[in-house]
Amino acid sequence: MTSLPLAILHEQPGDAAAIDHLHERAFGPGRFARSAYRLREGVAAAPDLSFTARVGTLLVGSNRLTPILIGDSPALLLGPLVVDPAFRSKGIGLALLDTSLKAAELGGHRLVMLVGDEPYYARVGFSRIPNGRVALPGPVDPRRVLWRPLAEGATEGVGGEARRAA
Questions:
Q1: Which residue ranges does the record assign to the N-acetyltransferase domain (predicted)?
Q2: H helices then E strands: how many in the chain?
Q3: Section 136-149 average pLDDT
Q4: Reading across the β-sheet that carries 160-164, which strands appear in turn?
Q5: Any alpha helices (H) in 28-130, and if so which ranges?
Q6: How far is it, in rounded angstroms, from Cα 131 to Cα 11?
Q7: How, if at all, do strands 160-164 and 134-135 pair?
């Protein structure tokens, strides 16, 4: 964990510009073509499950959870998780993940999905979704499609197209 004076807080409406700037710096303009971005398009992230990381007054990280459906099953889409490049490898991303996942579990949510690096996200309980079980919009490397159950049996019978929740 970081030794920085880190505060993890709920995202506020006034944080949007700083978060967009972080996304631009970390992911570049190609981010809008990615499958996960396409799933989030037009759907607001859950405000009670979206957090920022601050060092003093400086916003240095963000994580959002957005409601989706996998087939007919409700789930959450994690991300984008972003940490300012100057503050990476200090435990900020894991602190944001831990806070978001605990809030989702306490809120009664059962399943979280993401597209990301398995070695990183496995540290907080994510594992690869079996090939062919979930279809995403656009091309995606199936080795990067992960999920984490938040309740016993949460993945049983879950499969199909991942799409925006209305």
A1: 6-152
A2: 4, 11
A3: 91
A4: 127-128, 145-149, 111-115, 73-78, 65-70, 160-164, 134-135
A5: 35-40, 92-106, 118-121
A6: 34
A7: parallel
Q: How far is the C-alpha of 104 from the C-alpha of 76, rounded, in Å?
A: 9
pTM above threshold 0.85: yes
User: What values do phi and psi take at 46, rounded to 5?
Assistant: -70, 115
How many angstroms separate the first and last alpha carbons of the chain?
37
The torsion defined by the Cα of 17, 123, 56 and 85, in degrees rounded to 10, comes to -60
Q: Which has the higher per-residue pLDDT, 29 or 129? A: 129
Cβ(64)–Cβ(12) below 8 Å: no
Strands 145-149 and 127-128: antiparallel
Element of type H or E holding 161: strand 160-164
Token pair recorded at residue 161: 């197209």
Render pLDDT for 31-45 as a digit per residue (tens, 0 to 9): 545 666 677 777 888
- What is the C-alpha separation between 155 and 146, in angstroms, rounded? 12
| Residue with token string 């496995």 | 122
